[in-house]
Structure formats: C-alpha cells, structure tokens
Specification:
8-stranded parallel barrel; TIM Barrel; Non-ribosomal Peptide Synthetase Peptidyl Carrier Protein, Chain A; alpha/beta; 11 strands
Length: about 325
C-alpha cells in the first residue's frame, strides 16, 4: 500500500492508546516487529496554547521507523496550523475521530465528530491543503449503538483529502465491549480507493489473517492485545507476509524484554514516574502466567531497579 511517498507492504501498526503507547512502549514494540506506530493522542488546543506537558507525548525513539502523531480537536484552522508545526518531526499526521472518552466527546472532539460529517470533512480539507505530508483518520463504526455511519463518512473524508483510514469496528457507545464488527471495515474498503487499516479484536496471527481475508483491509492495527505481549507484532507480521510464525518468547526472553522496557521507561520519565508507569505494564506482562495475582500485587508497590529484579526473580519462578 502507498501512503503519500511511503510504501508499506502488509503493514502492522501500533494503535495509539492514551497512557500506554508512550515512547518507551513503542520502542519495545518496534524491537518486537512493528512496522509503524501512532503516538498517544495530542490536543491541538494544548499545542496552540503551548502546554508544556504535550512535548513528552511528541518524543520519538531512535528505532521508530515510521511514526505518525495523532492530534484531536474540532477547529479546522487550529488543527491545520498545529499539524503544520509538527509535520517535520513525523511521517504523517493522524486525526482522532474515534476516541470514546466522555471528556473528549463532551467537547465535540474524538468520536463526536462522527455526528458532524461536514465539520469532520472540513477539518481534513483544511489540513490537507496546508500540509505536505499525508493526513489520515482513525474512526469508529459509528457513534450511537447500532449505527453504521463509517462508510459514508469515509467517502467524505477521502474526497476532502484523507490519505488513509483506520476503522475500529465498534461504535462510540460500545467503547471496547462486545465483539468488533469487521463487516463495516469491508464496507469502508469498498467505499473508498485509499488504504484502509482494520482495527478491533486483532490479537494474534490468526485474527490478523482473518480480518484481512474478510475485509480486504490493507493492514492491521493492534491495540490492547499488545499490553504485556508486544511480541505478537512479529507473529502477526510474519503471518501477513506468508512466513513462518515465530515462537513466543521463553520466560527468560520475556524477562529481557521487560528489563529493556523498564530501562526505557525510567530513562524517558525519570525514576519516580518511570517506575510508577511500569507497575501497570508489569501487571500486563504477568497476565496468564502462574501466580499472576501475587505478581500484580508486588508490581503495585515497585519503585526501584532492585525491586524490579526481585519481581523478575519471582516471575521466573512462578
């Protein structure tokens, strides 16, 4: 598939997840086989007003081959101007039209834009005219439960200058519950000529192959399934390329991944915040292993490298 001047064959994307896909986590994911990633979402208004906290979200790891910044907002000119200020640092600009969180939706941003197709198209039209790099959109099946507005909106966005669409097969009111509707991804693919990325319930090589076969999507985006299992990126990538799927890492190899992750997190955010961030990741890494409940309990109070090594010792013995 082509995205502007970029060429990606069977791409596997890391989904933007607030509070999860920071620079350190993405760095580990690229080590584990990701082709491309999208940052945690960044407020266009926060950028406009010079909020210092946004800079942390904009950092790029050395191994991130292809990285987009995802911004959200509802003012076309502010969105375009802030994207223009950032585009030299990223490979493309992604617009969030899928976030279901009330604090975003109540401001008319994120998935709320699916209720305002004319404004959504105007945002993309304004951005596409000002920017030199591709503008893409992540959206959902629809807003209200049972809605299926994505195919119609997708066509509007393509006409406005959108270069690629990522479709999550749930509505805003579904949040992340129930089963993702892949049929709507197929309908979007049939409605537009630009690349379409399938998202929702992709958790390994089998589901990645299934979503591509059922929808004709050009690539897949993986989100929640990566928490504690970044190595499935290599598995999915191999499957989509028709190659042998690599074995999951051994317990010892998993320890090395966790240790690298912790080092990256602390380097990025400092000792105090870095170890706090690692607590939730350790709980995800422990999931599915014997003694996971005890490991989660220990992770909740972890605050140092020595504490990590003690935790890893328990993990190996579990």
């Amino acid at each position: 598939m082509h995205l502007g001047e970029l060429t990606l064959d069977h791409p596997v994307f890391i989904a933007p997840m607030a509070g999860v896909t920071d620079k350190a986590f993405r760095e580990i994911c690229f080590d584990c086989g990701a082709d491309a990633a999208v940052t945690e979402m960044v407020s266009a208004k926060a950028l406009y007003y010079g909020n210092r906290g946004t800079e942390t979200l904009l950092q790029r790891a050395a191994n991130e081959k292809l990285l987009a910044v995802q911004i959200f907002g509802r003012d076309p000119e502010i969105m375009a101007d802030m994207a223009l200020a950032l585009e030299d640092r990223f490979d493309w600009i992604d617009v969030n039209m899928g976030c279901p969180m009330p604090k975003i939706v109540n401001n008319g941003e994120g998935s709320a834009l699916m209720k305002e197709p004319e404004l959504a198209a105007e945002i993309i039209r304004t951005m596409a005219k000002k920017l030199h790099k591709p503008v893409t959109v992540k959206l959902r099946r629809g807003f209200a439960a049972g809605e299926e507005t994505a195919p119609e909106l997708a066509k509007r966005l393509e006409d406005a200058g959108c270069a690629m669409l990522t479709v999550h097969g749930r509505t805003r009111e579904d949040y992340y519950a129930g089963k993702a509707d892949w049929e709507v991804i197929r309908k979007v693919k049939e409605a537009v000529s630009i690349p379409v990325i399938g998202n929702g319930d992709v958790d390994g090589p089998e589901s990645a192959q299934a979503i591509r076969e059922r929808t004709g999507c050009d690539g897949v985006m993986i989100g929640r399934a990566l928490r504690g299992r970044p190595w499935i990126l290599a598995e999915v990538s191999a499957a989509l390329r028709g190659e042998s799927v690599p074995a999951a890492p051994s317990r010892e190899e998993t320890v090395r991944i966790i240790r690298r992750h912790a080092e990256a997190e602390v380097l990025e955010k400092g000792e105090h915040v870095g170890w706090q961030e690692m607590r939730k990741h350790l709980a995800w890494y422990a999931a599915g292993f014997p003694g996971a409940a005890a490991l989660r309990k220990e992770a909740n109070v972890l605050s140092s490298k020595d504490g990590l090594e003690k935790w890893l010792g328990a993990f190996l013995k579990a």
